[in-house]
Amino acid sequence: MLSKNLRFRVFETCWLLLMLTMAWAAFTWNADHVFYEGNVYFADGDCYARMTRVRDLENTGFHTIRYHLFENYPDGTVPHTTLPLDALILALSQGLRLFSERGLALAGAWISPILGMTLVALLTVWGAAIKLPYRHAMALMLVVSPILAHGFQVGRPDHQSLLALLIGISLAAEASLWQRRGNAWAYVAAVAWALALWVSLFEPLVLLGAVLTAKAVRRFASPNIEQAPFASIAGPLGIFCGILAVAFFTDGRTPGPLDPAFGRWTQNIGELRSPGWGGLFSWCGWVLPAIPLLLAWRAFHGGGPICGFWSWLVALLIGLSAIHARWGYFLALAMAMSIPFALPAFRIPFLAWSVLVLSLWPVAAFWEETLFPSPETQSLRLERMVDAVALRDASLSLSREPDGGVVAPWWFSPAIVWWSGKPCVAGSSHQSLPGTLDTCRVYLAETPDAALEILAARRAPYVITYDPDRVISNASQIMDAPPAERPLASILYRSPHALTSDFTPIHGNRFFKIHRACLHDLAQPE
Description:
Radius of gyration: 26 Å
Helix content: 55-70%
């Protein structure tokens, strides 16, 4: 007969393995879209830009990157991208190169699922170690939430995966501190918060401010609460400031002014739009609006101040996520971590589990459409895959041409840089908006001379054209200007030989056509 302690360990280990298996399935459902015909295709432009940075580190040695020449060419940009995720991808690639020549691309593809598995493992072990009630429900929410699966998706080497891991560790440490489980958690919180701020100054700064606000309110409401001596916080505070100092001297922070077209450009960015309540429910289930209320009720009925802390944090993130989808990763994370503190409001465990499971209907519906897509969804996925393969073909042909900048649709530009090695005028970051606007002006140009003037100024002899209806519509929307009857994008795509005195066709496939502009006075890149 197994002892009670041994049965506990066996069960928790089996549950951990089950959660890791489910997490792996959720994070890698799209693997056939990433690994195709021996190549690795990343999820979006930002991912290709990230991998271009890491390739530079691999080729020229580990160093600080504070300037991107490959976007907004030839002026370049001062990016917000930072070193920590670059370093993790580079380190993973060195190990993978022992098994494959594509070690760098494979590292970029697998880094986010690995970070996601790490988060699931750490929080599952944390919940078991301190014997949280409904800890199994917390782990289940972590692995079934579609928005978290998106953040940890294979082929998506973006900073949200590392941020979610660090924020999860930070919140676990903060919850442990609120429950007075030892000052060692203060050191964990200090390291995790500082590293998160190094990765990005936006979301972690807001969340850290929310945590500090909750602590201040608690002290104001309970003035007799025992205050931690300065000696106990000096160490964590010193570590926190030390990491931030290293971050500042490594990556720096030089935010610039936003271009007036920023608002129009953001209308094309999914994470900067509202997901609506339907989107929030598909990420977290119907129980989401009830979670802050349950936590608030428990805060006044035996749950303690920690329930008030979670109630405030989840309510704040619901509001932020309703405005911008980019907050959804942290909403799903905080909501999952608050479940052990919210569900005890149901005195009957069977009732609590029933409410939670039934509320996951929209989550299940999302996964059903994802794994068993409708013909329309399947057609869109196929179109994106075909586009990606054709873009790689066009970019490789461009790599054999002489040096020079490239004008291409902004959402394709980072992939073109990755595959061709040539810099692009546009980019997927808001820092490259000046180049994106010039690209729009080229596509909307009414005469070849107007486009050639911009191309000469940008040292960009190569113009890539794509479906003119989409390119012209997007350029017109960003520029807030109606297109001409036959703008240059339409002429170059539909009549590639019509302007041979100014633009020479050099490559074409089913979806992309490349022209070399005749820029006789084009200045050579420095």
